[in-house]
Design brief:
This protein is an alpha/beta fold and 552 residues long. The chain has 4 domains: 126 residues, Nucleotidyltransferase, domain 5 (2-Layer Sandwich); 69 residues, no CATH class; 214 residues, 3-Layer(aba) Sandwich (Rossmann fold), CATH 3.40.50; 73 residues, P-loop containing nucleotide triphosphate hydrolases (Rossmann fold), CATH 3.40.50. It is 45% helix and 13% strand. The chain has 23 helices and 15 strands. The strands form 3 sheets. The protein has a 7-stranded parallel beta sheet, sandwiched between helices. Helix 2 links the parallel strand 4 and strand 5.
């Protein structure tokens, strides 16, 4: 290790002046000064130089100076590029700057250089204990790449020339599609392929490709899709298992999919989603639409480390679905909405960022948030699910302008990610009016060139009954409602037209011996969430809500 120097620089952002240089050698000797001349003297004897992001940062400012030394600048080792390759289960693997006791303290280039040395030690140790076939694959793919060749020279690792495609198929026989076009992939995108294989080999459900890799190596998403998320037609060892929708259904403790009037629409819709098609499903309320998008979402989360984004205007539905999944021991779903306090929101953001979430529930308004956009740019998005899709149509009873922005957002996201493959969408509604269906399909055809395959049910909800009780005034309405509550003695939601009326009616029912709470869209988020939880748990049997209290 005496032949290597670990360095870090601090640069003034505007003037690009070198403010400080820190360095340490393998023998423990160190340097800390802004003097470039003294730094070059310190480097004497070093054959390799190492830093964290040294290729795209430090060498931009000290590269010319290093050219005046005997040190070959091509012998620069960058621990940043090695981390996703060797620590795919810890994709971010940042420099742990424990010396900084407060966030506003300045960086210490010397300490960062020391930490970089420790990081390289870890990376070397990890490489040495890596499976020999995988080491050969990494070497054959990366030996000539500037981000990696110095690392192999430094640790003196070589491998005989072998057919890398055969090695990959041998190592990942049951982990990637047998029909993936490996020859083209490794010849055109060797670094991207290496990062994908490292992630697959980690076999960790929650590991993801770090955002900086997705940004700088944009083909990573497409390659992972080709390897793991595109079912082959003839079938293979991997695809037959990874895309088995009945195995996916087992997580929900079900053995079969729901039929509508004898038709297997739910199963067919799930198959279409797993095949990466865009769909429009017209299922009755309570007809199993959640399973229809949750099964493919969880399967894609496992196979492609992807995130499914569910867009819904119903805050209470988001929370209810996340809670229901957790009750089934499925913890890969989170929501970000106005009901969350700052700590809950931060936790949801963190879980999306670190890959522990495969499903994200948000409102259509959230797409205008820069935070949400940055969040989604940092993950592989496998599908957008749009609930209450009739809101796209001016012919629907709940047309919402914010829905018309969804297509623009998806298009912008695809352009910023430089995606060749369009992100598929799944739309769900219980409104089967032909004009509404046409509006939804036309919208996505025009905005995103997506042709939505239609799955529509003609089944009626025989378990629902509608009755009208004409009453003369408010007092008669109240007495009739109270009689119905006493008669049915079950969880009850009473809808009213105004916020003030929700409070007054809940208060009067409570005074008359009924346990009731109000619920409306303008309510404080903590009170709203508490009332909802109490109703779901059965602590409060009556909820008095405004018609649009569900809408954000």
């Amino acid at each position: 290790m005496n032949s290597i120097a670990f360095i870090d620089t601090e640069i003034e952002p505007k003037s690009l002046k070198i403010l400080d240089i820190g360095a340490v050698k393998g023998d423990g000797s160190s340097f800390h000064s802004a003097s470039v001349v003294d730094f070059l003297t310190f480097l004497k004897g070093a054959k390799f130089i190492c830093g964290h992001n040294i290729l795209n940062h430090d060498l931009k400012y000290i590269g010319r100076a290093i050219d005046r030394t005997e040190l070959n600048p091509s012998n620069a080792i960058d621990t940043l590029f090695l981390s996703p390759l060797l620590f795919p289960s810890r994709p971010y693997h940042p420099l742990n700057k424990d010396y900084k006791l407060q966030f506003d303290e300045s960086n210490s280039p010397l300490n960062d250089a020391i930490i970089t040395k420790e990081l390289l030690d870890e990376e070397i140790a990890e490489f040495k204990q890596t499976d020999e076939i995988l080491k050969q694959i990494f070497y054959l793919l990366l030996k000539d790449k500037k981000e990696f060749h110095a690392f192999f020279r430094f640790i003196e690792y070589t491998s005989a020339e072998m057919h890398v495609e055969n090695l990959i198929r041998q190592k990942f026989k049951s982990e990637i599609c047998e029909h993936a076009e490996l020859t083209r992939i490794f010849s055109e995108y060797p670094i991207e392929l290496a990062y994908c294989l490292a992630l697959i080999n980690a076999n960790s459900q929650y590991s993801i490709t770090p955002p900086w890799v997705l940004k700088n190596y944009r083909e990573v998403e497409r390659i992972m899709f080709r390897l793991r998320n595109k079912p082959c037609i003839s079938g293979c060892l991997y695809c037959d298992k990874a895309f088995d929708i009945y195995l996916g259904l087992k997580r929900f403790k079900h053995v079969s999919y729901r039929t509508y009037a004898g038709e297997p629409l739910q199963e067919n819709a799930v198959k279409a989603a797993v095949d990466n098609k865009s769909i429009l499903a017209v299922f009755p309320t309570g007809g199993g639409k959640s399973i229809t998008f949750q099964v493919p979402a969880l399967m894609a989360g496992k196979s492609a480390k992807g995130l499914t984004v569910v867009i819904s205007p119903l805050q209470s539905l988001m929370k209810d679905q996340v809670d229901n999944l957790e009750n089934n021991d499925i913890t890969e779903a989170v929501t970000i909405n106005g009901l969350l306090d700052p700590i809950e929101r931060a936790k949801s953001l963190e879980r999306v960022e670190d890959g522990s979430a495969s499903i994200l529930y948000i409102s259509p308004e959230s797409l205008r948030s820069r935070t949400i956009e940055r969040l989604l740019l940092g993950r592989k998005i496998v599908r957008f699910v749009i609930d209450e899709a009739h809101c796209f149509s001016s012919w629907g009873q709940d047309f919402r302008v914010d829905y018309l922005y969804i297509g623009d957002f998806i298009k912008s996201l695809q352009e910023k990610k430089n995606l060749d493959d369009r992100i598929p969408v799944s739309c769900f509604t219980a409104t089967a009016k032909q004009k509404v269906i046409e509006d939804i399909r036309d919208y996505f055809r025009e905005k995103l060139s997506l042709d939505l395959e239609l799955f529509t049910s003609k089944a009626s909800r025989t378990n629902l009954q509608y009755k009208v009780f004409p009453k003369g005034d408010e007092e008669e309405k109240y007495l009739a409602a109270r009689d119905l509550i006493e008669e049915k003695n079950c969880p009850t939601i009473i809808y009213v037209s105004r916020t003030r009326k929700a409070y007054l009616l809940a208060e009067r029912l409570t005074k008359d011996g009924f346990n009731a709470k109000p619920y409306h869209g303008k309510m404080d988020s903590k009170e709203k969430s508490a009332n909802q939880d109490a109703f779901i748990k059965g602590e409060i049997p009556i909820m008095v809500a405004t018609w649009h209290s569900e809408w954000v």
